[in-house]
Amino acid sequence: MRDMSKTVGIVGLGLLGGSLAKALHERSDYRLIGYARRAEVCAAALDDGVVEAAYTDPESVLTDADIIVFALPPDTNAAMLKQFRHCLRPGQLITDVSSTKTNFAAAVHEVFPIGVHFVSVHPMAGSEKGGYEMAHSDLFEKCTWIVLTDSEERGWNADDAAELTEWGRLVGSRIETLPLADHDDLLAVVSHMPHLMAAVVATVAGGDELGDLRLRLAAGGFRDITRVAGGQPSMWREIIGGNRLGVLKALGAVEAQLGELRRLLEQGDEEGLEAYLRRAKGIRDSFAAL
């Protein structure tokens, strides 16, 4: 049974952090406090009644919270944790909603005081539009909520993992569990590499002297495949750079598939091309059915 008298401190009231704050505000009895770099974001969260207190200095959040949610980009999360390690106390639970885990987990274990717990989660939700103004309480509905297991590391706690799993159910997500060590390689293939592919398609179509004309001719398919390329470049630089080896491995797999398509086209193998497209359609249909 979760203790909803706890204080949840959300470090970063952007799209993910703000949406989590709004969802927990609507669907739980936790006391919520938050940190945002800009005073106007703190004011907006207070005016919405989403948090009881909001600060432009994270120290108060890290000191007062029983559960600390790091909801900034991965490297920023790690740097802030190291800078404010003195605020942590035994009994606190640290979690994060980062798209990559290796660097932040390493930072947690580097500064780990005795008695502090760490269980990471990754809600597979988002938008190319960021910021608190885009946050909404149903962002996580029907999305995947990944709870990372790391039972061999000190600080990981099954009861805390169960509480964060319950958060996923509260916000309407589908729960998956995954070893923390496997997370970044898997997400490289279904999140980080696809972002780069969207950037490639956008650049090939619009990056030369015929770009404006091509973009005027483009329709829904181009819009859909390039949507994520509209995300914040500085945030995605941190995400992709923080998972460099996993993304490089995924790009190798992409190059192999492009080689196969090139072979089919060079040989004029229309039946092989249709079979390739049919298999891809089956994979996409399986995803849509989840």
Structure, explained:
The protein has 290 residues and is an alpha/beta fold. It is built from twelve helices and nine strands. The chain has helices at 15-27, 39-47, 59-64, 74-83, 102-111, 158-170, 180-206, 211-217, 220-226, 233-242, 244-266, 270-289, and strands spanning 7-11, 31-35, 53-55, 67-70, 93-96, 117-118, 121-123, 144-149, 174-179. A six-stranded parallel sheet has the order 3-2-1-4-5-6. The chain has a three-stranded mixed sheet with strand order 7-8-9. α4 (74-83) runs parallel beside α5 and α7 (180-206) packs across α11. The longest helix has 27 residues, at 180-206. The radius of gyration is 21 Å and the shape is globular.
Brief overview:
This protein is 53% helix and 13% strand.
Strand content: 5-15%
Category from helices, strands and their pairing = alpha/beta
Distance between the termini: 29 Å
The overall strand count is: 9
What characteristic shape results from the CA principal axes?
globular
Helical residue percent band: 40-55%
pLDDT averaged over residues: 94
Low-confidence stretches: none
Outline the fold blueprint:
Blueprint: E1 7-11, H1 15-27, E2 31-35, H2 39-47, E3 53-55, H3 59-64, E4 67-70, H4 74-83, E5 93-96, H5 102-111, E6 117-118, E7 121-123, E8 144-149, H6 158-170, E9 174-179, H7 180-206, H8 211-217, H9 220-226, H10 233-242, H11 244-266, H12 270-289
Parallel strand pairs: 1-2, 1-4, 2-3, 4-5, 5-6, 8-9
Antiparallel strand pairs: 7-8
List the defining traits of the structure above.
290 residues, alpha/beta, 3-stranded mixed beta sheet, 12 helices, 53% helix
